[in-house]
Amino acid sequence: MESCVQFGIAAIRHHVTVTSLPPACQGLTGAQVDFAVGSALRSAAIGARGKVRQRERIGQASQYLQHLVVSVPAQRGEPPVLTPAAPRLSRSTLGLIALFTWLITVALGLWMMIRWILRSRARYPPGGRLRRPPALDLAHLGLAGASLLTWIAYLASGVIGLAWTASALLPLVAGLGMTLVFLQPSVSPADSEAAQALRAATAPDPARGYSSRGRRPPVVTVGAHVIFATATILFALLTAIGIS
User: Fold this and answer.
1) For the whole prediction, is pTM greater than 0.70?
2) Measured by CB atoms within 10 angstroms of the end CB, which terminus of the chain is less buried, N or C?
3) Which residue from 230, 222, 136, 233 is spatially nearest to 181, judged by alpha carbons?
4) Which of 55-90 are b and which e, b meaning 16 or more Cβ less than 10 Å from the residue's Cβ?
């Protein structure tokens, strides 16, 4: 850059109008050439008394270097480094994930319901009245199936209203499911003697290594059902809202 400044000073001193980029200024950026030209023009004002006289000298000298800055080719900056964006899940991907967790939740629920029906028939007399009415199971199963079919219709059509409808049904399904968890089946007091006799007749032989643990609710299955149901509600809401 110093050589470019000296070239500008020499051009002003010898009244040479610069029309092209000299070798002394090649390789410099536009800002560096501007700085060199400014330094050369300020050197031309040395010795002049007063700011007015200095500005006059700078104005006269600028005619020799005014083409220098224009003749400098624009420096192409390096292309900006594109930061890879964090991977985002699209709405369709979230919808498919919700469908996957939905199917697992329904499968676990059906398995628990079938297990409860089979054990209820084997354990209680046909006339026994259960504290957990079958209508509650049917309502839970019906709402779960309706919401699942609505979600499949949304995935097939892309109508957001169907996604919101299916998401709105999920809290009702979850509420009925929690009710079923806390309402364990039992017979009424009027049929307790018959129920006890039936359980005594069908009780497993302790000598065979059986215990009463097999008659307890499947805690692992219930826990998995609740976890997948919660994940389904979350993914369904994210899909309906459109967060990705």
Assistant:
1) no
2) C
3) 222
4) eebbeebbebbeebbeebeeeeeeeeeeeeeeeeee
